[in-house]
Input
Amino acid sequence: MQSCEKVAEIVGFEDKVQSEYEGPDLASPRQPSLDGSRPVETAEPRTALTTLCRTGRQIGAEMPRRFCFGVVVAALSALAPAALAQTAPAASSDPTMKAAVAELVTANHVLAQEGIMPAYGHISMRSPLDPGRILISRALAPGLVTAEDIVELDLDCKPIVVPGPLLYQERFIHCAIYKARPDVGAIVHSHTPYLIAFSVTDVPLRAVTNAAQMMGAEAAPVFDASTTGLVENNLVASEASGRALAEKLGQASIVLMRGHGSTVVAKNVQSVVTAARAAELNAMILLNARLLGGHITYLNPKDYGNERIVRESGTRDWDASKAKTSGK
Output
């Protein structure tokens, strides 16, 4: 029954249909019967599809292969409606999703042009339709990202639409933080030089500028990948290292990553783009201030309570960056 096996492969199920029938009896409550008296369970489409193919093998002498192929194709909508109904974010007809995808593409371009993510690094956001999913580009230089490159992942970092394109190997940074922090709506991971400088010394990174007020009064935590016991080339390339990073971040808005870069979180895309740029600028200013010598006055969050000013500042920064990127 090679035709049946091919259908299973095309649909993208993880387990290939066995070439020989083996497994539970067809009369099992979880399997469809030949006469259709037992409904197919859509919760496990792979099991049902496999059973159809196995059943076809059993009666292969009486059923031509092309007929089995037709039966399986016709049954797919009943067996796996959820899987087949999924579409890429760019193909969504929902206006909220379309707007989110467009904003994420713009954010990639802004961060690329501003030198925060020139070739490497990534930005993500929670899906506007499901907080248990995230939107992120496929593995691509940020400046080249288009709407068609945006993919949707669940919080285990598994793609919703399969098979999918090559993904960033450090996508686990995003999934782990979204799991741990329901308040986070967008994340930027980058490799900017001034922040890396603070990641490899015992000099604490603290906020000294107005723009960096999102950092609060405490020093930014530093994540050292070598403490995880995993050998991932100083990257965050697994669920385990992603969880370790999220734990180090805690309730902060930024975590430095030793000799690697940083990860910044915020409530939405516009805020996280502003925060990522502000964090690097703050690190540069603090480094220069230390070179001058003398006492350094750090930012006091108690001086920043006017929400209207905070909102205006963030919006202006985003609008200016967006205009610069579009050439207007």
About this structure: The first helix runs from residue 2 to 11.
